């Protein structure tokens, strides 16, 4: 009997289909609804590893981070409704971050559907608003078909998450083995010379151009091409929110991040530029400072918008020039363009020099008379970490110091959710270390952010990973407190936190650590952390008064009270 006639269970079909896609890691929390998949994974442990997580939200974050790092879908497996609901935060992050991801959910048996069986949910309705495709595999013979389509959908156009429900009884059905092959997505082609002619004409008129890059489908070659293009054309290059690793921040063309906490001088430059070339970024709320840097729907600036998905072009802003192209294809085509003479070449050169000088000045921390200055912590990391070190973070005011003062040098060195999801940093660090064990991995987390997924320290220990965790402990949800003080000064509720002893907490997982309460002690603590053979946690005792790189708690409150007087 040929291999194609050999009967295999639905669970075996799922694992075979994953292996055909080159999948080597699956993140998940085990559940009784997909026991046959787990059994099939047991037989393939030498080819694919199952990372046992403690919470489905963390598992989904890991899969999303894996997708960012590899460009192919990270895979997460969870059980029915409770597991799926917990995992939804990772799916939403993959949606807003344009990350390829696949969520596999164990489902109730087909004979129980529409009866509200134990933990039954209609996943098509549940995930429809923030997944590219949601489906249920009811026929075991079609598993390979559905999985191949899931990979194709997740990676095509604007990448994103796909959800597949796996009925429990389908997984124990049998069918002959089905041929499967690795999905290679055809990228949108690169623009032709005639496509680029309007861009060249716009460049020829521009004295104050600005290149803004973002997105998730770049290769290293594409990033080199776009940097070369910016250099030859004398165009300042900025990165979209939490995409700072798309350009070496030490490159002479780089002028900063366009996102939360944007350098006010860079924000003004976006307003003042006469040509904005946006490549790969959606120009959403975070990138446009609440849709204020550009007028909706017709920007004052000449807007050239380049995206791989036609659906996003003209969605919010109507560009003067819209180009549907793969990001690498566009960069490669632009790299071959001859420099375009500006009407005021000296003015363009001065514009680029000024924006670069603004950036360099912005990343040098001013003196603050505080016991522990987070800015000095980040500059120490900037000086001490290896060029390819991966830095992860979730959401919170603490991340503003990293975005402002750290300099990213290589691609795939920043893992941070553009969705603003708290709890992301710890799982992302785990995914990064599993994927690239040779690279330094540093997780930055606020006290609130850390405790949302800190149970995954058990996963760290189980897999013997060496990660440096830096916890910014100010005893509060700092971002929300900032907004409370700004809008309702003195009326704080729900933002104060009672925290554990983080060093003792880490020790309970077998992870070494120490508490740092003044700036001068951090560098030696970092030295010990980087030299440690295992993971290490550094707790930073941050004064609540040190609210953000720009504001103090009392200063913000006083300003708000004066404004409301």
Walk me through what this model shows.
- This protein has 565 residues and is α/β, with parallel strands linked by helices.
- It has three domains: 3-176, Thiamin diphosphate (ThDP)-binding fold, Pyr/PP domains (Rossmann fold, 3-Layer(aba) Sandwich), CATH 3.40.50.970; 193-362, 3-Layer(aba) Sandwich (Rossmann fold); 374-564, Rossmann fold.
- The strands form four sheets. It has a six-stranded parallel beta sheet with strand order 3-2-4-5-7-6, with helices on both faces. The protein has a six-stranded parallel beta sheet with strand order 11-10-9-12-13-14, sandwiched between helices. It has a six-stranded parallel beta sheet with strand order 16-15-17-18-20-19, sandwiched between helices.
- The chain is globular.
């Amino acid at each position: 009997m040929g291999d194609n006639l050999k009967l295999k269970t639905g669970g075996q079909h799922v694992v075979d289909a994953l292996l055909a896609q080159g999948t080597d890691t699956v993140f998940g929390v085990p559940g009784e609804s997909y026991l046959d998949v787990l059994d099939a994974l047991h037989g393939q442990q030498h080819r694919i590893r199952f990372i046992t997580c403690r919470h489905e939200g963390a598992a989904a974050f890991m899969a999303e981070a894996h997708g960012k790092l590899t460009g192919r879908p990270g895979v997460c497996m969870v059980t029915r409704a409770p597991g799926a609901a917990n995992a939804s935060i990772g799916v939403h992050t993959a949606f807003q971050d344009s990350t390829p991801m696949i969520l596999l959910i164990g489902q109730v048996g087909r004979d129980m559907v529409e009866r509200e069986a134990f933990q039954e949910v209609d996943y098509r309705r549940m995930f429809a608003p923030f997944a590219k495709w949601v489906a249920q595999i009811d026929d075991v013979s079609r598993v390979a078909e559905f999985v191949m389509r899931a990979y194709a959908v997740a990676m095509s156009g604007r990448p994103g998450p796909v959800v597949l429900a796996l009925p429990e009884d389908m997984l124990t059905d049998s069918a002959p083995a089905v041929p499967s092959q690795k999905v290679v997505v055809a990228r949108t082609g690169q623009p032709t010379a005639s496509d680029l002619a309007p861009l060249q004409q716009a460049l020829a008129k521009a004295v104050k151009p600005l290149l803004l890059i973002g997105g998730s489908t770049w290769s290293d070659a594409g990033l080199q091409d776009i940097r070369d293009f910016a250099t030859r054309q004398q165009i300042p290059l900025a990165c979209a929110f939490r995409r700072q690793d798309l350009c070496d921040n030490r490159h002479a063309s780089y002028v900063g991040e366009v996102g939360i906490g944007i350098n006010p001088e860079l924000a003004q430059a976006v307003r003042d530029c006469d040509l904005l070339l946006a490549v790969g970024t959606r120009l959403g709320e975070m990138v446009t400072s609440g849709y204020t840097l550009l007028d909706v729907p017709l920007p004052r600036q000449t807007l050239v918008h380049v995206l791989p998905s036609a659906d996003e072009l003209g969605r919010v802003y109507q560009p003067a020039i819209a180009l549907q192209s793969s990001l690498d294809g566009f960069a490669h085509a632009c790299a071959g363009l001859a420099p375009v003479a500006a009407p005021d070449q000296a003015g363009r050169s001065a514009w680029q020099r000024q924006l670069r000088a603004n950036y360099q000045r912005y990343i040098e921390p001013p003196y603050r008379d505080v016991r522990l200055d987070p800015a000095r912590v980040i500059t120490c990391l900037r000086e001490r970490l290896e060029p390819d070190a991966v830095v992860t973070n979730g959401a919170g005011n603490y991340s503003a110091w990293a975005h402002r003062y750290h300099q990213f040098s290589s691609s795939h060195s920043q893992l941070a959710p553009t969705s603003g999801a708290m709890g992301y940093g710890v799982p992302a660090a785990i995914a990064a270390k599993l994927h690239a064990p040779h690279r330094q991995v540093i997780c930055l987390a606020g006290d609130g952010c850390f405790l949302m997924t800190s149970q995954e320290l058990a996963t760290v220990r189980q897999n013997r990973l060496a990660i440096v965790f830096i916890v910014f402990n100010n005893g509060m949800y700092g971002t929300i407190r900032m907004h409370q003080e700004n809008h309702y000064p003195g009326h704080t509720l729900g933002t104060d936190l009672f925290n554990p002893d983080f060093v003792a907490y880490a020790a309970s997982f077998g992870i070494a650590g120490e508490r740092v309460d003044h700036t001068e002690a951090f560098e030696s603590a970092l030295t010990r952390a980087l030299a440690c053979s295992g993971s290490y946690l550094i707790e930073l005792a941050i004064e609540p008064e040190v609210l953000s790189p720009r504001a103090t708690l009392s200063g913000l409150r006083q300003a708000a009270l004066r404004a409301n007087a």
